[in-house]
Each structure stands twice: as structure tokens, then as C-alpha cells.
Write a structure and sequence with these properties.
The protein is α/β, with parallel strands linked by helices. Helix 2 packs across helix 5 (110-123) and helix 4 packs parallel to helix 5 (110-123). The chain is 35% helix and 19% strand. It starts with 8 loop residues before the first helix and ends with a strand. The chain is built from nine helices and eight strands. The chain has an eight-stranded mixed beta sheet, with helices on both faces. The longest helix has 14 residues, at 45-58.
């Protein structure tokens, strides 16, 4: 059978009937500016197989209908939320290096969801769960206040054009919501190779009364050893981009 290519949303639902839903929030849909856009793309046979077999076990749709029991989901481990994991290679590396921490990884990219599930199975990672849908709905309606031990946002869409800056994820309203779901002492770790977005992140995070910069000088942080150097980052560095990490702590 040929591998699916450029499938419609309806076709994707038929291909993975027990996999990630096309519109998981359904009736919870609301009119607001999104920080992401649908990313379907080509699903390989291996990714498709992982979605069919592993989604019922390690996947969840962000439907906004109930608060997650993170203790049950991760066996009592502290839980870090990662928003936007791409193809999941860095997520899998961090999960393997820190098996005592659970990673709830959120994205809307079907090939990446399948790839991360396949990596988790291959590496024997039982501390990864893959969430499909809108991270705002997840934080607002499905995570209890103080339920998270960390938040990671690595290389989010910078929305380069000025008229699209309102679509950037790291905005004051988002930071206020995210901080309310973090335990005291939890870390917020962001990284970007787009200088203007790094400046916005630093300004917004610094302005939050709930967060404090882990850098005494109030600036950027050198890349921590636990954040893997990704292919995307390597390519950006090759183009002369400067990568900025920002690490803040929940007060």
C-alpha cells in the first residue's frame, strides 16, 4: 500500500481511527488568535504504524473536557510540559537522560507525533506522553493549578512578519496562565534562534510577577547540558543565527 501523502483532515482520521483526533477540542472551539497552524505533511509507514498501535496507550487528545490525573499518568513522577516538539528527537533524548521526570509533549504535527511515539517505544521510554491539540486549552482546562514541575518551549514559530507578532505564543496572557499551573520552584525554559522573539520573551518573562530570572544579570542563559543540540538548531547556527536560552523560576 502506498504511504499517505498530503492527506485531508478527514482522510487522516480514517487512516488512524484510534489515533489523534482531527479537532479534539470540538465544542470547546473558540474564536481567538492561534499561535500555531495545522501541520499535516507526509506520514511514513513507520510513523503511521506507531500512531495506530501506540496512540491508545501513550497519546491523548486535548478535548478540554476533564482535568488530567498527572500522578496516575506518570506514576507519581514530577511532570514537565513541552510545547512544540517537532519530530521529537530532542524530547526522546531528554526523556532517556532523565527517566524520573515525566514529559507531557504537545504538538499538532501528525508525523512528529508518530515519530516521537516510535522513538519512545524503541528506547523503552515510559515517561513520555504525546498530546494532540491546543496547548492553551490543555493548560486552562486540563491541568490543575500547581500541577506542573516545569515548562519547555523550544524554537516556537517566531511569526516573523510584524502583523503576525500577535500570534507568538509567549505573550503576557499566556505566561500568566502557564505560571498558575506551575509549582513553586518550577522552571520555565524557552529557546529561540530569532533575535527579536528572544527579546520579546525576555521582556515578557521578566515582567511576570510570578517568575524570576535564574540569571543574576537578568539576561540569557547558556544552553543547559540537558537541552540537546537539535538538527534544526545546528542548521540555524550554520546560517549564523544566535540561539538564546531563557530560564526562569516560578516564585
Amino acid at each position: 500500500m502506498p504511504e499517505p501523502h498530503d492527506a485531508t483532515r478527514a482522510d487522516r482520521r480514517l487512516q488512524f481511527p484510534e489515533g489523534p483526533a482531527v479537532d479534539p477540542a470540538g465544542s470547546h472551539h473558540e474564536r481567538r488568535i492561534r499561535s500555531f497552524r495545522p501541520r499535516r505533511g507526509r506520514v511514513t509507514s513507520g510513523q503511521g504504524d506507531a500512531l495506530r498501535r501506540l496512540w491508545p496507550k501513550w497519546g491523548l487528545d486535548i478535548d478540554g473536557r476533564s482535568v488530567l490525573d498527572l500522578d496516575e499518568m506518570f506514576g507519581g513522577r514530577p511532570v514537565v510540559l513541552e510545547i512544540g516538539f517537532g519530530m521529537g528527537e530532542a524530547t526522546a533524548q531528554m526523556a532517556a537522560a532523565d527517566p524520573d521526570t515525566g514529559i507531557l509533549a504537545v504538538d499538532v504535527h501528525t508525523p512528529g507525533q508518530g515519530n516521537l511515539l516510535a522513538l519512545a517505544e524503541r528506547e523503552g521510554l515510559d515517561n513520555v506522553r504525546v498530546a494532540n491539540g491546543d496547548a492553551i486549552i490543555l493548560l486552562r482546562e486540563m491541568i490543575a493549578p500547581g500541577g506542573l514541575d516545569g515548562l519547555r518551549i523550544f524554537f516556537p514559530d517566531p511569526w516573523h512578519k510584524k502583523r503576525h507578532h500577535k500570534r507568538r505564543l509567549v505573550q503576557p496572557e499566556f505566561v500568566e496562565l502557564a505560571a498558575s499551573r506551575l509549582r513553586p520552584g518550577a522552571l520555565v525554559h524557552c529557546a529561540t534562534d530569532w533575535e527579536p522573539y528572544a527579546e520579546q520573551m525576555l521582556e515578557v518573562l521578566t515582567a511576570s510577577p510570578d517568575l524570576e530570572n535564574t540569571r543574576p544579570d537578568g539576561g540569557y542563559t547558556p544552553r543547559p547540558d540537558f537541552r540537546p543540540l537539535t538538527k534544526f538548531e545546528t542548521a540555524g547556527l550554520g546560517k549564523g543565527h544566535t540561539v538564546h536560552d531563557l530560564v526562569f523560576r516560578r516564585r
